[in-house]
Design a protein that fits this description.
489 residues, Rossmann fold, Serine Threonine Protein Phosphatase 5, Tetratricopeptide repeat, alpha/beta, 3 domains, DNA-binding, two-stranded parallel ribbon, 21 helices
Length: 489
DNA sequence: TTTTGAGTTGTTCGA
DNA sequence: GTCGAACAACTCAAA
């Protein structure tokens, strides 16, 4: 079914789905044809290796879903405004719709695009959809922003969220389709080297898969979520972060599933909803204090003597999963192989880097950006700063994760460690061996190597971190990070 | 304005 | 092994 009316452009970005899509619904409501487009602009191309690769998978899934509904996804590469103007000129479109983004770079781009298109006489409209609560709709009684999670949670937990919108069964096609790039030619996997195939095997891609994943989680795991979610060896988490990142599923759908489970008396449902609201809190902070993305969120931390060499031997050991601390190394390898890391493990490796190795959180965050398929700037900036101590939390400075104690607590039978560390095992599991398939050959690692001696002992690392904090707090100078001799245990 | 209670995720030590 | 206390002091949010 085609029509000669001018189409409405749907500019897809981080909303690669068809359900719960207000921009799409509004376009369909006009009765005009719909022209879905994805633009690979320079800003998007700058994201980390794994994130860019995963984005490509998501684009492919959306293209297939559109095709099944009589439509197509037009791909263009270049500055967003140029590409949109080209498409408008080619198709005679009078309107462009998109879902709002919240990071400063996207806001700057979208503001400029909207102003330029409006000046061209085009109806440019942005819609919500990436968040449950718009950041400017949440404020404390004094009219300020929330800086502590619990009050934020209390403020939003009872609120209504947007109703769910079914995916349109059919998208009216324009009279003629403009030319499209070929997704394969974009080579979004180029920076992954040999790891793309390994990581791809762990990705759950697309809207239908995300929905199935949510359904399965609610059916099998949400009831035990509260107790099991801290054990990285258990399949106790929803895993939906990668889908939420690319908008393959709406937070509204996830929230609604949690709400239904809560009504049904599921013990873990509220904890699950709280995790989803952590994502909202991160966006709240990014919106109101965008410096959280690159600067210490709390004042004064610029004087803390983080080590800043991303190629220092102990930092390389951290990246490669060779610190000699099994829980840390297992987690870093899990990330390299799967593009994901269990939440508890993220805290432990972040604590290890920022406290035991006294290394700047931004170095760790940058590595996460390259390795995570669920990479999200708001969530990562908040999480890293929270662990490092310079972020939004009343963290007692003496809270230094002990990676050995944590393993005893959360991986007592060492299932997680054994799943990811091959060295020393007579018959390493496939997961642990796959790490050596994923890493670059230049690292020169083999599963037959000896497992490394600890870079620094957990106890000494803790004492050194506390001493560094104490020295910084008292305004002493001269602290330069790694100034003590590493000790093996 | 002042007061009050509370703050995701911890560790260690000693009874 | 289990449990409670100590680890300091500060900021936030609401009353």
């Amino acid at each position: 079914m085609t029509t000669t009316q001018p189409p409405v452009l749907i500019w897809f970005r981080r909303d690669l789905r068809l359900a719960d899509h207000q921009a799409l619904m509004a376009a369909c409501a006009t009765g005009q044809p719909v022209l879905p487009v994805f633009v690979l602009d320079p800003e998007t191309e700058g994201i980390g290796a794994a994130a860019l690769f995963r984005l490509g998978l998501s684009i492919g899934a959306l293209a297939r879903d559109l095709q099944a509904r009589g439509s197509r996804l037009i791909l263009r590469r270049g500055p967003a405004l140029d590409c949109l103007r080209d498409l408008i000129a080619e198709t005679g479109a009078q309107a462009v719709h998109w879902s709002r983004a919240y990071d400063p770079a996207s806001i700057a781009r979208d503001t400029q695009v909207k102003a330029a298109l409006k000046a061209d006489g085009i109806a440019a409209r942005s819609f919500r959809g990436h968040l449950l609560f718009e950041p400017w709709d949440v404020s404390n009684k004094a009219g300020g922003i929330y800086k502590v999670y619990s009050p934020f949670w209390k403020a939003v937990r009872g609120r209504d969220v947007d109703a769910l919108i079914p995916a349109p069964a059919h998208l009216p096609a324009p009279a003629h389709w403009p030319a499209s790039d070929d997704l394969g030619n974009w080579r979004l996997d180029a920076a992954m080297n040999c790891g793309a195939a390994v990581v791809a095997a762990h990705a759950v891609v697309g809207e239908a898969a995300a929905q199935a994943r949510l359904d399965r989680f609610v059916d099998t795991a949400i009831a035990r979520y509260r107790s099991d979610r801290d054990s990285p060896a258990l399949d106790a988490c929803s895993g939906l972060s990668e889908n939420l990142t690319y908008g393959e599923i709406s937070p509204h759908r996830v929230w609604a599933a949690g709400a239904r489970a809560l009504e049904a008396g599921s013990a873990g449902a509220e904890h699950f909803q709280k995790e989803l609201v952590w994502r909202e809190f991160a966006y709240h902070l990014m919106h109101h204090t965008p410096h959280i993305l690159q600067d210490n969120w709390k004042d004064g931390w610029a004087g803390f003597g983080w080590a800043t060499d991303p190629d220092a031997p102990e930092v390389v050991a951290w990246k490669q999963g060779r610190t000699g601390i099994p829980f840390v190394d297992a987690a870093m390898r899990e990330m390299y192989v799967t593009g994901r890391m269990h939440n508890r493990a993220r805290m432990i490796v972040a604590s290890y880097l920022t406290k035991h190795l006294l290394t700047d959180w931004r170095i760790g965050m940058a590595w996460f950006a390259d390795c995570l398929t669920d990479w999200d700037p708001a969530a990562n900036a908040m999480g890293w700063q929270w662990v490092a101590g310079c972020g939004p939390d009343a963290a007692p400075y003496f809270r230094v994760f002990n990676p050995v104690t944590q393993r005893d607590k959360f991986d007592p039978d060492q299932r997680y460690v054994r799943a990811w560390i091959a060295e020393g095992q007579r018959q390493p599991p496939q997961s642990a061996l796959s790490y050596f398939d994923a890493i670059p050959r230049s690292w020169g690692l083999s599963h037959r190597d000896l497992y490394p001696v600890p870079v620094i002992s957990p106890d000494m690392g803790r004492k050194r971190a506390l001493a560094a904090y104490e020295a910084w707090k008292q305004g002493q100078t001269g602290h330069t990070g790694l100034d003590a001799t590493p000790v093996a245990t």
